[in-house]
């Protein structure tokens, strides 16, 4: 396992257990070193600036000017070369197969129909056995578009389940248990959850229950509300965010780590991520385009194949083509977060944001209203 980052941190993309990709932007050093007492700021990862995790998420530099140093996860066991998380258990996507009670989540196996109980204790037991650097509490997740008493019930239950996960955790010196903030889109409920969960001495916090179909305006306000109340010296992991614009804006709002299926899923639809958006390589316009997906990209796909080749491959050996696009899209995310991290370390993050938005939207002032407002809330203007 690896410590999760020092200033000059890393950025990473990773496939979680559920096929997600996690990227990280952290880098300020809150000197979180309670487990092994290593000085913050020296470790980082030995290889790529954008580190690929086998199945996880991580932390990089924080854009927050008041937190010039990087949050640091404690050191993790030496047996794996990369940081990783377990992926946790994302029960919201299984909701049609499952029933949530105080005991846990009871669900039917999609394979043989057998009923299984996943309790907070069992969830931690499995993740302890997996040995990942980061393990996630079992939470009671409701879709962000759900309203009413169920949101409150799920939030309070997630707090109770956090306590059960903490009690069940057998390897706190080796594995970092993250709490997951819930509360839907209700500022009062989310604040209550933040107040309660931050009383617990867990090594990191995830912001959960967002990116589920709510408006971007609601989304960023809930992110900002959360980061404002999370401890400054511990990593903040925003779950389910993967669009490049969202990553950049949420780093500005104070998030360090992300994970999302987006880069890999969109690759499987034939979409290649580029600084100006994406290329739909199946389109005829790429039939005779012999440039790489992105001339600036150092990934194996861009070093080896042209858009025309990938276009032809998409129309013949589709699986191989999707593999090449997946490699590129992961590399894109890594390079993006690496650039974000470098700009924070070099204290030019606002300029980076303006340049990024200018490239993505043609002009920084053309970036979406919600993003402009979110950035303005932390003093970054695009004009
Ligand atoms: Zn590439």
From TrEMBL:
* Any Pfam family the entry gives: TGT
Ranges where the tRNA-guanine(15) transglycosylase-like domain occurs: 85-360
Q: Which InterPro entries match?
A: TGT, TGT-like_sf, tRNA_ribo_trans-like
The UniProt keywords, alphabetically, are: Glycosyltransferase, Metal-binding, Transferase, tRNA processing, Zinc
Q: Name one GO biological process term.
A: tRNA modification
Top-level lineage group = Eukaryota
Give me the stretches of Basic residues compositional bias: 29-38
From which residue to which does the signal peptide run? none
Q: Where is this region: Disordered?
A: 1-88
Q: Where is the composition biased (Basic and acidic residues)?
A: 61-75
Q: Where is the composition biased (Low complexity)?
A: 10-28
Which SUPFAM superfamilies is this protein grouped with?
tRNA-guanine transglycosylase
In short, the EC number is 2.4.2.64
Which PANTHER family does the UniProt entry name for this protein?
QUEUINE TRNA-RIBOSYLTRANSFERASE CATALYTIC SUBUNIT 1
Which protein, by its recorded name, is this?
Answer: tRNA-guanosine(34) queuine transglycosylase
Lineage, opening ranks: Eukaryota, Metazoa, Chordata, Craniata, Vertebrata
Q: Which gene encodes it?
A: QTRT1
């Amino acid at each position: 396992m690896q410590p999760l980052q020092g200033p000059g941190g890393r950025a990473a993309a990773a496939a979680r257990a559920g096929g997600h990709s996690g990227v990280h932007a952290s880098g300020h050093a809150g000197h979180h070193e309670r487990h092994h007492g290593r000085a913050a700021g020296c470790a980082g990862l030995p290889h790529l600036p954008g580190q690929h995790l086998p199945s996880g998420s991580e932390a990089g530099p924080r854009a927050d000017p008041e937190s010039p140093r990087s949050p640091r996860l404690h050191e993790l066991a030496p047996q794996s070369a990369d940081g990783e998380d377990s992926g946790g258990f994302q029960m919201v996507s299984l909701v049609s197969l499952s029933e949530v009670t105080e005991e846990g989540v009871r669900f039917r196996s999609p394979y043989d129909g057998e009923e299984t109980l996943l309790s907070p204790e069992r969830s931690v037991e499995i993740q302890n056995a997996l040995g990942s650097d980061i393990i996630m509490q079992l939470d009671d997740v409701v879709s962000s578009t759900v309203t009413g008493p169920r949101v409150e019930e799920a939030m309070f239950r997630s707090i109770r389940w956090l306590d059960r996960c903490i009690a069940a955790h057998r390897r706190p010196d080796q594995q970092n248990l993250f709490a997951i903030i819930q509360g839907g889109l209700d500022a009062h409920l989310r604040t209550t959850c933040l107040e309660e969960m931050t009383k617990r001495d867990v090594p990191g916090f995830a912001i959960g229950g967002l990116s589920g179909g709510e408006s971007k305006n609601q989304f960023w306000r809930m992110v900002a509300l959360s980061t404002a109340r999370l401890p400054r010296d511990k990593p903040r992991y925003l779950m389910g965010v993967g669009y490049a614009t969202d990553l950049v804006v949420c780093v500005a709002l104070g998030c360090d780590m992300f994970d999302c299926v987006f880069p890999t899923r969109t690759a499987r639809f034939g979409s290649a991520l580029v600084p100006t958006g994406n290329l739909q390589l199946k389109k005829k316009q790429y039939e005779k385009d012999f440039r790489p997906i992105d001339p600036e990209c150092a990934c194996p796909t861009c070093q080896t194949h042209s858009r025309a080749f990938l276009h032809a491959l998409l129309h013949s050996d589709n699986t191989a083509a999707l593999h090449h696009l997946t490699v590129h899209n992961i590399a894109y995310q890594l390079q993006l977060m690496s650039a974000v991290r470098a700009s924070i370390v070099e204290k030019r993050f606002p300029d980076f944001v303006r340049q990024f938005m200018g490239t993505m939207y043609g002009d920084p002032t053309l970036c979406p209203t919600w993003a402009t407002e979110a950035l303005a809330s932390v003093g970054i203007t695009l004009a």
